[in-house]
User: What shape does this take?
Amino acid sequence: QFPEEFDEVFAVLLDQCPQEPYEVICDILESQLGCFIGDAFDDFDHKAVAAASIAQVHFAKLKDGTKVAVKVQFPDVERFFHMDVATVSFALQLLGMGSQVKEIFATMQDQFRQEFDFTAEAEVMREVADQVLPGT
Assistant: This one.
């Protein structure tokens, strides 16, 4: 548990994560879905309800009326992450520390691979929903 002062500072940081403009999000979704956003959704909130370091979330309504939360990964964030890890790994190897941190970097890369896999996250969320809300 962090001191209360830390919680206040981190809360500000979390509440003020930058958001991608709607146009960028729309382009990402249309590319991923292979159709216009209006073909998939009856309604799509232009303003994100949440934003974090790798993605933001928008409320939307599917064509059948189902209300959903749509999590959209920021463009190039995964590529930049891998570049950053490779750069730090290379620097540590130059300093002769590569073998000491090899396992840590492998674990870190595996953890982030899971973070970037929104399909796997959605499957877990469906399983949880099935357990919490049987019959849905």
Notes: The CA atoms of residues 26 and 99 lie 43 Å apart. The helical segments are 4-15, 22-33, 37-40, 77-94, 98-116, 118-132. Strands lie at 41-44, 50-51, 55-62, 67-73.
